[in-house]
Amino acid sequence: MNTEHVTTIPSSAKARRNPPPSRKRTPRRRRKKNKKKQASALPRIKEERKRKHIRRAYQHLKSTVFTLFTRQEVDQLAVSCGFCQREAKKIFPFEFALCCMLASMLEAKRGFASVWRLLAAAADIKVVRSAVTGRFGSGSAKMMEALFTKALARLPQPDHPELLGKLEQFKQVLAQDGSVLQLAPVLKKLFPATRTNSMDAAGKIHATADVVNWRFTAVTLTGERDSELQQVRDHGIKPGTLYIRDLGYVDYDEFASMIAEEADLLMRLKSNANPMVLRIRHGVVGPRRSEGMKFRDLKFCKTQNSFDLDARFSSWDGGTTDLRVVGRYNPETGKYHTYVTTLPAEAFSVEELAVLYSLRWVIELLFKLAKSSCHLDHLDTKDPDAIRTHIYASLLAATVLSAVVYAAAKSAGLPVSDISLLTVGIAAPLMVLPLMILWGQRELTYDELAAMIVRMIVYGCRDQNPARTTEQWGVLGA
């Protein structure tokens, strides 16, 4: 009986004889050829990525910054505001508005000359200095104010995940404050300074800022003696809004109106306030027997670094308002930072209220940006309309910088909070000419850029009083 011999081939040998299609090895010559192709295509791929990044950056700037106001809108505003009665011939409204705004980022001493130099250098508008001076008036002030209001309404609102959560319950979180501007002494009748101020004339900017989105929402210019509280009353109360205020806005009748309008308040407690204690949650020695006492008669626990209670405040007309009073101990000063609020204890702890109040410094930083980088308080003019024009130009420049930050962060894929707005303000002079060229949609060659530098020197830096110079030094040439 014949027995067939069956040879069994190992599976590993079968795999070597018949490798799967995915594991087929490319011949060495072909591999070298593919590597050469990839190496030759690498510069082209890098160049395409670079061009794509550049196009993306321009598109973000175009959709975010350059849409704040357009040439057609400025031309319409110029007619409605009285900047020009008919079609402009030499100084066009769009270029004038751009140069007023961007000039505020360039020169610390604000005046007509900075606008004149930028018009000659960047816009190629060759006019005498007096022609630029004549364009400043009530029409230019109204036009710049209208552009500032329009830009505020169109400013994008970035996402701030670190501030969301508990703040999502509010429609807005607003801080209100004022800042003093020194003006020429001849304007003391229009803008009187306070009696305790060393200057004769001073203006005050009353501003409301959205502390979550880092932007101004309303700005009013008055004399320094005008009441900050009256300006707040004129703007009214918005339901569903949290107001963070400084000590200059204390009015218990106003607080009662906020409660009635379903708005919330957080502010510092004045040092002379002495309400009656209604209820104590923690932080006070003998809480039960302390209820009904005056706030200044309380003794706070040394074992706790905060206190929380409800108190009743009396107003001038005899009414009362019940508010929550909290305090957090500062070991550096040995005193409590005391706050008054309408926010409930179930929703916000004392520590959270202290952090929330620190958001009020956003409006201080916005003022610093407008003053330091956009030279809001460096006004070298005696004309009230020119002062208003320069002020709204500076505020418009600060708004444009906020839009530039948003566009840059979006283009780079970064959160807006990663970019320092104050550092952007320091770098603002570097952006003036590129913004002017891009916003005006001008395509310049190297020769035209060189001509721009020459125009800036020849027209903007020429001696304004050659006769005086000749009289002073001409004798040396004899």
Tell me, what is the CATH class of the largest domain? Answer: Alpha Beta
Q: pLDDT under 50 segments (min length 5)? A: none
**What's the CATH topology label of the largest domain?**
Transposase Inhibitor Protein From Tn5, Chain A, domain 1
Number of helices: 17
Order of helices and strands: HHHHHHHEEEHEHEEHEEEHHHHHHH
- Major sheet: 9 strands, mixed
Which architecture of the largest domain per CATH? Alpha-Beta Complex
Radius of gyration: 33 Å
Q: Percent range for helical residues? A: 40-55%
The largest sheet has its strands arranged as: 3-2-1-4-5-9-8-7-6
Overview of this structure, please?
The protein has about 475 residues and is of the alpha+beta class. It folds into two domains: about 70-155 and about 380-460, no CATH class; about 170-365, Transposase Inhibitor Protein From Tn5, Chain A, domain 1 (Alpha-Beta Complex), CATH 3.90.350.10. It is built from 17 helices and nine strands. Strands 3-2-1-4-5-9-8-7-6 form a nine-stranded mixed beta sheet, sandwiched between helices. Helix 2 packs antiparallel against helix 13 (about 385-410) and helix 4 (about 95-105) packs antiparallel against helix 15 (about 430-440). The longest helix is centred in the first third of the chain and has 37 residues, at about 30-65. It is globular.
